[in-house]
Amino acid sequence: MQKAQYGILRLAKYKGPEISNIEAHNERKKGKYASNPDIDNSRKNLNYHLVEPVGKYRAELNRLIEEYGCRTRKDSVRVIEALITATPEFFKGKKKSEVRAYFQTALEFIEKYQDSKTILSAVVHMDEKTPHMHLSFVPITQDGRLCAKEILGNKKKLTWWQDEFWKHMVEKYPDLERGEAASMTGREHIPPRLFKEAAHLTRQAKQITDLLENTNFFNAGKNTDKAVELLQKFFPAMENFQTQVRKYDKTISSLKSDNVSLKRQTQDLSRQVKEATSSSIRKKMNDARLRADYENLQNLMNCIPPEILELAKRGQLTHSDRER
Predict the structure, then answer these.
(1) Residue 71 placed within a domain
(2) CA distance 230 to 196
């Protein structure tokens, strides 16, 4: 089973003295980074900005606060930093232009909810093991107040940020999985890799049952040998798949009840595709397909004779077994 790929968004608040430190780190103003041995100074030239800083972070944030007429306190949060990246598996094999496109898509997500004028810098670091972007902005609300609490809010609002980030990114990168806890709906997102694994295992199981169905007096030994060989590869993958699927039992068991309404909904899909609900309809269709694949696998497994299954589990096939 392929490794999961997660889009990652981390949000942090900064008040005073830390602002100079994050600027020095983000803009690579230090000669050495003893605290971060992953930084390779010979690759610093590969870093780039999607938003260039106009000046020093502190001077620019003070200018913005004055421009918007924000009231401040000594302990006011003045900068929010979004660290945006993905798991290493996502970046594997991607061209520089594809990596840049990922971070550009993430920048567009932030700009949906934060005035682009409040962004101090968006810099992509390519000089560490995994590409990532540091995006720093001044937490000014739509009505012109300096209020990080309103923007980041409580645990529910932070979950909202994670949900919206995933929804935005998965439109362009459908293999990305939701990296945090399920949102408040109580229904877990089923990872795309499980759909692919179900389809792959279904093809394998079908190949095995076809072999056994086409077995006769003349080819019994050859077909049985081949079926056992295929089953020995199939079993570990199937067990791994079943373990993964159990995590989503609650979601999968609820899918059957969706099927009747799905038939009605798909009749109107061409009209609804332009509406926001279309993505949830597509999700239900995908989920229902996974349930069908899973049930088909169970049915296919039931068609395989027990003695053949036992041979595959033992991992050997004796001459007397073939003769039988």
Answers:
(1) yes
(2) 19
